[in-house]
Amino acid sequence: MITHLLTRIDLMMNSLSKGQKRIALFIEEHYDKAAFMTASKLGETVGVSESTVVRFATELGYDGYPKLQKAMQEMIRNKLTSVQRIEVTSNRIGNDNVLDSVLNQDIDKIRRTIEETSHEDFARAVDEICKAERIYIFGVRSTAAIANFLAYYFEMIFDNVRVITSGSQTETFEQIFRITDKDVMIGISFPRYSSMSVEAMDFARSRGAHAIAITDSMVSPLVQSADSVLIARSDMASIVDSLVAPLSLINALIVATVLKKKDEVSDTFRRLELVWNRDGVYTNREMEIVGNIEDDDK
């Protein structure tokens, strides 16, 4: 099956109607703008009816215009510069309420993540993580934050965690060159994909390690080297990447490993609580304030 939109258009161009050809040419030249237009807006822009746009999507083999729009959005995700991202976001949100718009988009991405993530791959990833001799977590640039978040909790569950957040090729390979077939590599990358994350996953796979990709779609370059693929929908919000759904997926990964190692983890956290209480790691300030208020009310 042909999956790339521009390839479909090229193959179908001669059989398209005059109006459909106008749509096709506009998409080829301005897909970064077309990707976020409604069918009505796209039709208005090129001078055809909304129904012509819908028929065009069907003619290309898509199940309706939303599927065509999704294909355009997938195509541009790794190609837009930061400046282009700002322009696209401005066109999408315009004068709408930014807070509501961004939060609703994140809600939609979590919903899509639930629908698209493989439960089989998720369960396999949890099993491999729990039995691994060493767990390598790779995430650079904007994904370094969630890589460190995952590592923070995994380091309390396991004693064999190594997090790599450097984009330097030398530093990365210095940290992973001992990886073996008894280890796990968790690679995290979203558009614009890090070239180093792809190289790290390739290297881990070549050494026999179980490679787990946490990424946004099956066309991600991380997928080709992954044994388990965990899809978490991401998107751009101006110059920043929305990592709400990836973080939610990582939360699920942490919870699943805790439940799988429940007795061991419970014992670990009982000992940690003793240390935290002894060293005053967490404040009781809120409780003290509540107590003072209650005293004042007497």
From TrEMBL:
Q: Name one GO biological process term.
A: carbohydrate derivative metabolic process
Q: Domain SIS spans what residues?
A: 125-264
The protein, known as: MurPQ operon repressor
Short name of one Pfam family: SIS
Keywords (alphabetical) are: DNA-binding, Transcription, Transcription regulation
Q: Which gene encodes it?
A: murR
**Domain of life according to the entry:** Bacteria
Question: Per UniProt, what is one GO molecular function of this protein?
Answer: carbohydrate derivative binding
Q: Does the keyword field hold Transcription? A: yes
Check the record and name the PROSITE patterns matching this protein: HTH_RPIR, SIS
The protein's matches in PANTHER family, at most eight in alphabetical order, are given as: GLUCOKINASE, RPIR-FAMILY TRANSCRIPTIONAL REGULATOR
Q: Please report the stretch or stretches of sequence annotated as the HTH rpiR-type domain.
A: 3-79
Q: Which InterPro entries match?
A: Homeodomain-like_sf, HTH_RpiR, RpiR-like, RpiR-like_SIS, SIS_dom, SIS_dom_sf, WH-like_DNA-bd_sf
